[in-house]
Amino acid sequence: MTDAGYVPGTWVAVVGERTWLLLSVPPESDLVGRCWDLVRSDEPLDEVLAAIVHEGFRAVSGFALVRLDGTERRAVVRGETRLEVVDPSGAVDEISGAGVGTWVDRNLGEVARLRVTNGVRGPVLPVRSGVVLAGEIVVSLEGLPRPRPEPVPVPERVEHTVVRQEEPVELTVVRDEPPAPVTGVIQSFDWAPQVTTAIARPEPVQAAPPVTDTVLRTNVMSPNDTQMLHGRASGSQLVRAKRCPSGHLSSEYAVHCRVCEVPLPVQDAAMLAMPVLGALRLSNGDTITLDRNVALGRDPQGDPRSANLVQVGAESDTMISRTHVEVRLDGWDVLVRDLGSTNGTTISQPGCPPQDLAAHIPELIYPGTRVTLGDQVFFTFEVNG
């Protein structure tokens, strides 16, 4: 059995049989209805998370989402929300999203009790399922489906031992050397076996010219580069979109136009070609169109068929790593990720103080965000028509 309760507050709590959500949005937000439909339909956690992310972090500053069933036992926490998980032995594990740019995503084990809170205290009132204004959700779990153990493969019984032996392969190696001079001495016998040696000649290496300006290397790099940065070009996929009076396309969940920021008229979303999501304006004035992923560095590596490779600064500039940072397109969202650079990456969201990016953790960025590589080269994310 599941015994759920809540402490009255100002956030919205969505309570289901296996999914519990506490998020910071106004109760009249359309997101509340979408989340309730997904929770009561028992949809997977990723479906609920996608609805929240599409709303944008400007509209949702913090949330905690927990799902426990036989196949999925997982929690996602963002912002000042805190999750306390108590296992059957009484041990408490606390998960917090404070100080994290995106969110904390954790798999859970055995859970006897959980508590989701934004810091509000008070009497706990019972709730079976539905949507209430709350500052805390408390759930006691008993008899929920346990995690399904992974099946252990049974080795097949071996009746016979078979040894496979490769057929010998004869190799003919041509010796690359000048003929021996004729001296009157017998040089070889026709009936003797010929033993030769191959000498590999290295290909000449051409020095690359020094780079001092931004170089877009999409059509220069070889497709055999080791680090593959997969992306999609705008217009190559269809998405559900709304259109503003000026003709700009936005997400089906958007309330305002992403370009001109005017309120979107009431309409049904249509399947349309994905538009270009904006551009990166570099500190030297160059502009990179966001029609696919972008990798920036002093010598960026990747697949030029799916990502723009932008070489910035000089090759001798050690403040910038070879492949320093990646800008990735994820549906309607634009994310930036430090690729483990030596001197780090700093991000300045509009109206927020600069913060250092954690390596390999993507951060959602908004129009007007400035991203600095090392301490000298930067770019700004811009959106236009």
Query: What low-confidence regions span 5 or more consecutive residues with pLDDT below 50?
Result: 144-150, 157-169, 179-200, 205-212, 217-230
The overall number of domains is: 3
As a percent range, the share of helical residues equals: under 10%
Radius of gyration: 30 Å
The protein's oligomeric status is: single chain
Note the total helix count. 2
Dominant shape? globular
> How much of the polypeptide forms β-strand, as a percent range?
25-35%
What is the structural class?
Answer: mainly beta
Q: How many angstroms separate the termini?
A: 53 Å
Overall average residue pLDDT: 79
Order of helices and strands: EEHHEEEEEEEEEEEEEEEEEEEEEE
What attributes characterize this protein structure?
385 residues, globular, six-stranded mixed beta sheet, 6% helix, 2 helices, Tumour Suppressor Smad4, 24 strands, six-stranded antiparallel barrel, mainly beta, 3 domains
Question: What does this 3D model show about the protein?
Answer:
With 385 residues, the protein is mainly beta. It folds into three domains: 140 residues, no CATH class; 127 residues, Sandwich (Tumour Suppressor Smad4), CATH 2.60.200.20; 36 residues, no CATH class. The protein is 6% helix and 34% strand. The chain has two helices and 24 strands. The strands form four sheets. The chain has a six-stranded antiparallel barrel with strand order 1-2-3-4-7-9. The protein has a six-stranded mixed beta sheet with strand order 10-17-16-18-19-22, with no helix packed on it. A hairpin with a 4-residue loop joins strand 3 and strand 4. Helix 1 packs antiparallel against helix 2. The two termini are 53 Å apart.
